[in-house]
Structures
1.
Amino acid sequence: MIEFATLINALDSSNKTSLKKEAIIRFLTFAPEKDKLWFLALMTGKRPKRPIATKDLKTWVLELTNIPEWLFTECYAAVGDLSETLSLLLPPPTERNDKSLSDWMEDIVILANASMSEKKAFVLASWNALNTIERFIFNKLLGGSFRLGISAKGLINTIAAHFQIEPSIVAHSIMGEWNPYDFEFDKLVRGEYSNTSLSKPYPFCLAYPIEKELEALGPIIEWQCEHKWDGIRGQLIKRNEEVFIWSRGEELVTAQFPEITDALRQWKDNVVLDGEILAAKDGRILNFTELQKRINRKVISRTLREEVPVVVYLYDVLELNGQDLRSDPLQVRRNLLEQLHQRNGDDIMQLSPLIHCADWTALRLVQAASREVNSEGIMLKKKNTIYYAGRKKGGWWKWKVNPMTIDAVLIYAQKGSGRRSGHYTDYTFAVKEGDHLVSIAKAYSGLTDKEILEVSRFVKQNSLEKFGPVRTVKPELVFEIAFEGIGYSKRHKSGVALRFPRILRWRRDKKAIDIDTLEDIKKLIP
Amino acid sequence: MIQFTSKGIYCVPGKFYLDPWQPVDLAIITHGHADHAYPGMKKYLCHHFTVNILKSRIGHDIQVEGVAYNRPFHINGVKISLHPAGHIIGSSQIRMEYKGKVIVFTGDYKIQDDGLSTPFEPVKCHELITESTFGLPIYHWESVAAQTQRLNEWITHNQGFKKTSVFIGYSLGKSQRILNAVKDMGEVYVHYSIAKLNMAYSEAGIQLPPYHIVDLRKDTKQLDGKIVLLPPALLDTHLLQKIPNVAYAICSGWMQIRGARRWRSADAGFAISDHADWNGLLQVVKDSEAEKVYVTHGQTATFSKYLNEIGIEAEEVKTNYGEEISL
Ligand SMILES: [Zn+2]
Ligand SMILES: [Zn+2]
């Protein structure tokens, strides 16, 4: 798997998109046909069932290397990735195996039915025939998620540009149903196995942040006001009984929302709709962190569907029974949307409610209370405007509520990259939980160059521990952290996740004793 | 016989310090890296090769005396000798013998023969004072030949895309190793700060491959498609961006880890180090046959805990060494 290892290494080592694209194109040019298909399969979540638990891999490495458990833990802390830690601990290989990626994958597929001792023999022999990076990849192939240093969207765009195909065709085709055994790479990416025109989305119409006084917008009656919902903006397409859901990131997310797919399939009309996918329970919109549980999951289990039910708040209709409506005025489209909803709508497909205010002052009150309904603020859309492709000033404005802030203390620092490399610019902050500190947010610097130098100096002089590039810092410097949203999270040690945290300012006037407590912060969760 | 003080490692009967970080009367210096050779000492004692490095780093007016490897001398009744540490040129382990007891301070070292520094020589002792920069079993260096091949393949790849290959590595030791490794791949330009230290090599009679000197503050056009060696300090500046169509690689032991490669956001990272890897550290400790080991910098807690577990008494000590390792 030399080509694949080279690709992974290139995707991994560089932050430059151009280099990543270069590496992908090189791989697609030189790799064997089957390897290219497996690469696409891995990128789009079509991976085989995990044949071996990671804890077994770890046990075998400890056996082979005679390393005590605590030392393994130290290594894992320094590396930060289990598969990689295992690959680095193993003794150098004594053999060489040049199997292709597809051969490895086919072996791994078969392995699922092997006995434990057969599995162990296979893994040990494989380790002994691969170099460090190949071992790392092999471990990842055996295990669960494999982040390849490029998003599905980045990959789709690269393939599209290289083969001169529309990105939406590539996306439609490779995100759909196929397998690496019975398909040809070229035909697949060109969409020859399916009717890709059915899924083709329109460019989203986007809003600018409002930059003037509301009164300058003219009479409020000329504006359609609604909440700016904090979910996943989506384009929902039903054409010829087929349903596609695109996210604003131009990713096909149909598989992540089966209930929406089912609901839309019931519609009597063929439509293209613009709306927001939201987590909702008992008629109430849930925090974005709830919805996050469903993002990036390849398989949506029934439990997850019950735990995080979703709805769509419909904003707009862009196409009806094959007719492009985008040049109709918003007012007309909204009327049509309401009729369509009456004919077809259900608990899942809902209308985004309009806010009717007599004047701008009244709207200000609604805006200020946005958080109470888990919205980010207000959207203002001029009633006589067409649905623009992309961002266009004047027609749509977003008016977000001010960010929330907390005071937190710096506990970890890491050097940054690019212009500020060499200085500590990536920070982790903590708040109080009883007598302890618990990390609450990571933020890249929002500080001035001068402040960064000062913080860097402090970090150098006050680092307590080093984990590779990360320094544990004496908790002394207090910063005000702003964020857009907050919710409960099981993935975070604090149990709380902040959305878009950033450093607002350095609070030199405050000491570590003055920082917020986790308890206080939890009160901010709506 | 040895005390770990707030000024440095102190030899009590000899009344001298090893790599002190505060001004003292007499300092024996293991090697010329800034975290081991501080300014302000009344007198410096080091290997011949280190003399000029100290002068160019600290000042030409310092009082410094050079000695050879394996030539014992006495200070206040302590028998002292320097032994090659293989870290950079002139790098020495300091062996001290007093009333039959032998203590060795390794300074920084590596087992791998880099082809430029005098290769590491094992020394037996009762007590060993060692570093542990890469004291975790995840660190294993490839052979020097394999490293050279990797660098050269990377250059070839860049040349295919008509790119300038920039290597970033410590200016003393690492840069000269890289220069030596890439000598057959094309014209090499080194930053003037590296060239200054290259002089220390030629003055020591160590032949380096030919190179040009470049000052990035001036014109950089001649660098197009060539090989360029720069010190880490330039990573912080916009000077790097002055070189058009560039691919840059960081050469450092830390580059063994993907996370480190990623956050430094270089185009490539090569795990090439002038420090011993995990097995190297263990081998040196075992070969020394020391009854007691002190660990001065790096993974001090982990490494000493592990030594204790495998039956070698060890203890971590606090020193000021190790800032060079951030790259
Ligand atoms: Zn050194
Ligand atoms: Zn050192």
Note: Residues 330-344 of chain A form the longest helix (15 residues).
2.
Amino acid sequence: MLDVYIAKTIVTLNRSQPDATAIAVRDGMIVEVGSLSSLEPWLLREPHVIHRTFESDVMVPGFIDPHLHPAMAAVILPMHFITAMPWSLPWREVPATVTPEAFDREMVRILAEVDDEITIFWGHHDLWHGAMHRSRIDQLSGDRPVVVWNRSFHELHMNHACMLHLGIDEVLAQRRKQVDLDAGRFYENGLGFAISRLNPFILEDARFRQGLERLREVVHFGGHTTIGDMAVGLFDFERELRESRAIFGGPETFFRVEQVPHGGVLTHGRSAEEALAQLSSLAAESGPKLTFRKRIKFFADGAFFSQLAQLLPPGYLDGHEGEWLMVPELLEAKLREFWHAGYRIHVHVTGDRAVELTLSILEQLQSELPRTNHGFTLEHMGYATPEQLAWAKQLGVSVSANIYYLHELASRYAEMSVGYERASSMGRLGTCFDEGLITALHSDFTMAPAQPLLNMWVAVNRVNAQGELMAESERLTPAQALAAVTINAAKILGIEHETGSLRAGKRADVTILSDNPLSVDPMAIRDIAVKGTLFEGTLRLNEPLHDIG
Amino acid sequence: MTSVELTLIGGYLGAGKTTLLNRMLSQARHRFAVIVNDLGALPIDQALIESTSGTSLTLTNGCACCQLGGDLASQIDQLAQTGFERVLIEASGVAKMSRLRDQLVGLPGVTLRAAMTLIDGQSLAPLLSSRWVDRLIRDQLDHADLIIATRVMPSWSSEQVAWRERAVFLEASGELPDWVWQVQSQVSTPGFAAVTKPEFHHRAVVVRRGLSRADFEGFVAAHPQIQRAKGFATLNEGHFLVQSTVGRCILTPSPAQDFEGVQFIWVGDELPPFAELSMDQGEPVAEVESVGI
Ligand SMILES: [Zn+2]
Ligand SMILES: [Zn+2]
């Protein structure tokens, strides 16, 4: 039986036939893309059903987010969002909250509605919401435990009731570093202290599972048919494996999870042979929806949001230094093991100094064992110089970028971190495309919303959070941006033979949109509604939440 | 709670941290708990740990959000509660000694007995001119109570007197000398002078309706701590691009658009009264289309 779907436009990303109006699917596979008349040789031979539900909609290849963290999302998603940026969550449209007063009002409103043991709010940003303080929360909620988590996740405040509830001993906490007990503030290592007390609550089984279920909704809502879990083992390898299989393995999940293990965790305290053997057996026992392949993830430098990216001179405005997450020589040794074993290697790099190190290592590895189509990928790439990107091309490197950094951080980092020139050119994607690098976009959810259309919008318009155009010449065309969330993202994960474009022989992974991102006003790309998806030919519809108000 | 004595062993990859740790464990005169760095190069001798101390924990570099497993101080608490009085910590090769000291000095019930940085005497010069870790190595040496040279004693240059004065050489094998057990931490960190810089703060404000150009300029002029302001605002006279630097406020008419919000940078502790300028309680936030973070 063939299912034939008719659409106003089908954007195929298949060069020989860029536009179409009909797509025929059998057993989850595309048998042909074209028009009803071009499909006739199939229709004459096979029983079929023609679906016209989407004849005024636009179909594009199923969206792929090649880098997010389900485990991290599972911790954050059960929290109550109050954010300066509007967030579309499947269960709630979170409006923009841009003043301190409005932030407090939202807290009061939510507190009246919920009955959590500890009420945790996520999204506070002092840039918009003013300084948080224990007394500020105490005034709103004197007796119920409340935590206000910073948007970057690197800082939190709690009220007095919460300290009592968690048994945070004042004497103990007072003398800890990076804890300001008066303000109820826990940051850096102090945050670790607070988290160790909150762990029984935020990592509790039922809550963690609820978090993963919410992530599933988020992924559906964004119109994805594939996601990459880009560091299985971030918190707890075995537990993540077990819970992901339980939650994403079932029939309620309409996307596949490409699993890339955290190399640091996997190789810790054991030989490369042992790690490789474990990975082979994980790949062998991969199910239809969750798949390990010959892929591995390593971390070079610190988090972009914490300004711990390793920078080449002139560095940061205040003279502080970024951090390495692994000794450079050790990083090289580990990359070498997996390079020689034929793996596709993903390296988290946020600063240009980390890019320099990573490319230097790869150049050495290429001279030891030349490889082509090796899938070596720079993940995030906050700052990289034009010369580095030309070098990356010569080495066959791909880029998976978090372009949302630019929208969220560029104006702030221009003033407070690295100055205008480098802040405005973070995420040099125009250069990546000009150099011919395989370039994809990711969300690193919850570092950015898992909404490919929103990330496309940032890449195409390069408008920062305050409306300023940043490095105009680095903008992508809508077609490049669409490729970056579909076929290029598939190449990053090494699954481009299966998905990422619409042509005969690929999985029937399709995202159904209300409008064509290649022809709407570029500033309207983020307003296009995701109507639903076909995942391996199975239809799933989004609730029409966007039509409300 | 019993009091815990910490000995911190830092230094770059290949300096001999694990070797020293294993030697200390095998010659220990007391029972030690051990905290080793995560993602390390060499395994420490588990058998040694089991025979002499019975416990080891791991420690990671990087930001706290990536370690839901808990922080170093909590690990030390945990060890103290199980009765350990002495803890050896092998820091990661990329750990800054300044940051570790920051975490550990002043913890209740904890004494930092010594922070020792190991350096392979032969690799000092190349490490100090490394493209990747030069500043890290300086930090590790600047913030050590004692610098332990392994293999050979480096030939210190004249600018390295502060390091030379704290450096001792350790033979590669044999009985550990007494000083290894007797190093005492300084109260203040030697060789490090704090530099105070002016502290900048920032805040984004969506300017409320009903203000004129003169009101806006007046606000900036009235609060000299404001160093810069940049962004877009809708005032009575229209929509403006705001670019203000100390003492000069430039408002350029700009085509109306979705975006609003002005980022203010000020210096010092005195918060400018943004409530005068900002959207107040009554106004529906939904009116504002965009915004940040
Ligand atoms: Zn990530
Ligand atoms: Zn982090």
Note: The longest strand of chain B covers residues 110-120.
3.
Amino acid sequence: MKKEVAIIGVGQTAFVRGYEGSIRELAFDAYKEAMLDAGLTAKEIDASIICSAPEYDKQRSPSGTIVEYLGLNPKPTFYIETICSSSSSGLRVAYSLVKSGLHELVLVLGFQKMSEISSADSQERMGRGSDIMWEAPFGTMMPAYYAMHARAHFQRYGTTEEDLALIRVKAATYGMINKKAVYQKGVTLEQVLTSDMIASPLKRFDCCANADGASCLIVANQERAKALSKKPVWIIGLGAATAPINMSGRESLTGLSCAREAAKEAYQMAGVTPQDIDVAEVHDCFTIAEMMAYEDLGFAGPGEGKDLIRGKETYIGGKIPVNVDGGLLSKGHPIGATGGSQIRTIVLQLRGEAGEMQVKAPEIGLIHNIGGVGLYGNVTILGRD
Amino acid sequence: MGFEKFGIVSFTSQTKATPFIDHLERGVLAGTKCKGCGTFYFPPRPDCYHCLSSDVEWREITGKGKLISYSTLIYAPTGFEADLPYTIALVEFDNKVKVFGRLSKEVKDEEIKIGMELKYSVVKLPNDRITYEFKKA
Ligand SMILES: [Zn+2]
């Protein structure tokens, strides 16, 4: 295992509906937890990477405002955006800054306060993360795009609405034991199947919950990681890829090519295979997205994702536990904070500090974080010391 | 100018792909063919990333369309509420050219099937707006 760059501190706010504070205060909550976790003070941080989807922010260039509030002046900061995968992209940049030797300790902070705008406005803005020239004029939105993927998957592989509902039930099972989840209630199969249709065949419970929240990661080079941390978690594989924004440019709608490309790169860099992964966080912005992730990541063959969920193989104790923190479906999806939160979950799992959500003695964990409708794919593989 | 007429709500007004609208107004759905290397593009574009030529000709989308996938929206983004419910679709024509758009409301829910044959049809909208939709072939 390569031990060159590590994560030595993690933090996350509770994901909530309607955070009662400003974005700088929201950022501070996650920052404080990560800094206390790593035992660091502001002057030790060499650079920061701030991640969010800017269309939700009233503050232009929020990184400048946030680093001042966190006491990180006069150190440099960078603003990174790949919609829902912004903070995974942020981690990739932090890795390169550290690996290059330019900096020793780099902070990655993702945040989003989605509640500043209405849900319809939010859907419209998210919809504009797809092709505004050729698709948005038809009235597109995120659930409808993923619904098209679901229909294509059903047709080709015989996957059913009930299979997708099983994914939602699993998410709720773990959302109930995650004190930081926005949705902490249980959900039954019947509740999912009878919930309001949003964009057929996806129903209300097939969709993730909007939330406000922030996440924070502290990345260190080998020397600092060993000196500062008892349990550094090493970044052993990174993969990032893109795919055509418009549906016309996609080979098929039964999976996301950017996820397959990113996974291939990350597995290769880490020198591991899908069978080596002990615990995973995948981008379940919709239930179908988790189903496609099982297959795109190689946890199941094409069309065989349904067998994993039917057999409860993605629960704790199963072959490959996935999203045992509630995922985006129950924990919530504050766009810019999501990747960092997924990474935090895997760091805690590898340290053995995930509490009730703990998977038995995992050594290697994986994070799959997607921006837009399969526009940006990011796969990160972490290893225990 | 001209492209702002496209669809229910357009987010683009200035583009070199505006001849697309002129073709729609004549009832034709068109893509671009690069004069340098022959690559066909839909959605159309005035530039070719294969050979870097910006010399293109407009060509009609041909052949019977085949429905790749679809979804019927029950909720809509701001500005589209009046059309609900409506169905978005991806349709494949000759030479694997895929076109994104809406299914005509003439196609009944129970008739919609992946693989069904479709054709495109230009639709004039109020306020001098224009779009296209897919109908049964
Ligand atoms: Zn060309």
Note: The radius of gyration of chain A is 19 Å.
4.
Amino acid sequence: MRKFFPVEELARDQRFHQITMKDRMADPRSALGTATGERQRSNRLVPSRPDASQAARALMHGIFVGEIQALEGAGRTCHDFRTQGDAARRAQDEAHGADVDDVDDAVPFALKLDMARQAWDEARHVEISVKLSDWMGSEIGEFAENTVLFQAACSTDPILRLAGVNRALEGLAIDVFTTMKEFGGLAGDPFLEFCEDWMLADEVTHVKMGSDWLRKVTEHDPDRRKKALEFQSVVDKLFSYGGTRSDSQESPIGLARRFRELAGFTDTEVEEIAEVSLAALDERKAAVARMQAAAAVEHTLATN
Amino acid sequence: MADPYQPRPPFAPWDRRELPGLFDVEESARRIGAYKWAEIKLFEALGGWVATVPELDVKMRLGTHCYKHAWHAELWHKRLPELREMNPDRLTKPANDAMVRFVEALTEPEVPERTIEKLVGVYRVFIPHFVAAYTFHKNNTSEITDAPTIRSLHFILQDEMDDWREGEMLLQSLIDTPEEVDRAAAHQARLEKLMVAAGGIAGPGTIGGSAIQAGGPNGSRTHAGGVA
Ligand SMILES: [Fe+2]
Ligand SMILES: [Fe+2]
């Protein structure tokens, strides 16, 4: 088995349709709403939204495929990186062309145990999401699967991967589950609220694993830590989904500040993510405005 | 109420545990190091395969089972220092080169069309050999001096049996045609030959046999190299 796995080859049955981030943002059913007409003052996913049922189903499907990718990511981390002290694996990797001097691919045994635990948790989340999707009236494959999570998160450097998967991706999961849990509460759906609450507990644990390991492994390597945190903020920006997640009510998903704190994010880090998310929202709004202006010009030309 | 000062036998009549055991501390640590290495290889393989199998139910089971084997490796990791092995990495190694070749062949299937081979390797070869190695260890180690290992073996064997059954049922649900039966059998035979060459998870003597030599205060002990 290869050491690193390309996103294009993630194995799926025929029900799934995989798309890129660009396709995703062009989907009119995107949780941010349509690009035409007057923009709503609030896009937050609440039951009073006219398209609440469809938007909640779309988000649930997004959670479902996101959980599959999180499971695949955690599994790959168990496989891709050598356990420190595993001489037989080192010899094997070198026989397959690994650089003799490059020892940064080795990770502590306990880190890999955490990743295996995460794989089990994510497998349960897939199980929960399948059942919840069914409960909410949607089917596997009803919405396209955006593979950006796996793509963005699966770095070949273990510390960057931790920052990308366990802090950025799992951090996004905290925000999504908090919003979905609140949605379940407001919509009077105790089943949804109950499940999201359990998944949220797991995600806080996963982010905490990332925060703790990042600190521990880079304890004596400030450069590596800096690089990892920079990578995380790039991924965070990508995961802000063009404004899908931010403190603003215009974003369907809020920023779960309290749970992020529990998971080991500092106040400064939460503020940085808040800023990056708002900037992403503004960028998306400007892009929507440009598209609308272009459409208006096209319409004027066509009618004259 | 019975008189609390009345002498009672230290071992209750129903407690038939015995002192003799086949392994001394050193041999126990060697075996456990080999188990730990093999469990690590198994959870790495299961984790890596998750992304490569298209069948959603299989994908989820692999993720779940990945953790169980990591936990087994963790139990063995914690047991090693209790067996005077203060550097657990030293003994965390394959029983021999043939075991390395076995793991290489086990993890070779990667493309999405080879789920049957992936599952055969784990559930028809590797896990049955874990069950055999652990059962032999549980039934032959001292029931009193090595109770902590026996306790871990009970937990681990429960997992192995559960996973074996689940994996076998997945395989039976995937194998539909005579050609697929042949594919499964051919892959099993290929891996089984490599495992035979390795002598089992802990090397020759994993489940006794000719590598068992008499010796030690408890009647006999095992050494992979046949040295007592
Ligand atoms: Fe998850
Ligand atoms: Fe997670």
Note: Chain A has one domain: 46-303.
